[in-house]
């Protein structure tokens, strides 16, 4: 007797709503975050962040490794203890991520390497 009605069309939103939510706050690519962390390591220390009303916590609580803003310091500290942040730190401390130039060279779109010139005319 029970069960679902066969003609009823129910849209299942399993992953579509999550990806739309994630794209709301665009995150930088791995190569951009990696270069930003290298610049911070070469400099003296973190610069004071400007106030921005559109970002959570007025843009004052930021995680450079994950490229995320947080509402307050407690939430950011909780994020620092999370498994996701620790994996991201380990990934950013490892070898440099692939860049756009690497992708173009792998696809054969870079400068052609014809080898050394054997005979000159």
UniProtKB/TrEMBL annotation:
Pfam families assigned: zf-C2H2_jaz
Gene Ontology CC: one annotated term: nucleus
GO MF annotation list: nucleic acid binding; ribonucleoprotein complex binding; zinc ion binding
Region annotation Disordered: where it falls in the sequence: 1-22
Primary location: cytoplasm
Gene Ontology process terms (BP): ribosome biogenesis
Compartmental location: Cytoplasm; Nucleus
Residues annotated as domain Matrin-type: 61-91
UniProt xrefs under InterPro entries: Matrin/U1-C_Znf_C2H2, Matrin/U1-like-C_Znf_C2H2, Znf_C2H2_jaz, Znf_C2H2_sf, Znf_C2H2_type
Highest taxon, organism lineage: Eukaryota
Keywords, sorted A to Z: Cytoplasm, Metal-binding, Nucleus, Ribosome biogenesis, Zinc, Zinc-finger
Family recorded in the similarity comment: Belongs to the ZNF593/BUD20 C2H2-type zinc-finger protein family.
PANTHER family registered for this protein in UniProt: EXPRESSED PROTEIN (PTHR47444)
Descriptive protein name: Zinc finger C2H2 protein ECU02_0310
């Amino acid at each position: 007797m029970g069960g679902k009605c066969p003609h009823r069309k129910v849209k299942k939103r399993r992953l579509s709503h999550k990806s739309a939510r994630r794209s709301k706050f665009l995150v930088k690519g791995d190569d951009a975050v990696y270069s930003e962390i290298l610049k911070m390591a070469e400099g003296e220390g973190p610069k004071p962040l400007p106030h921005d009303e559109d970002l959570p916590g007025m843009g004052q609580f930021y995680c450079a490794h994950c490229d995320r803003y947080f509402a307050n310091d407690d939430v950011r500290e909780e994020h620092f203890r999370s498994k996701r942040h620790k994996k991201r730190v380990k990934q950013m401390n490892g070898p440099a991520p692939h860049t756009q130039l690497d992708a173009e060279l792998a696809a054969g779109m870079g400068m052609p390497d014809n080898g050394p010139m054997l005979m000159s005319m």
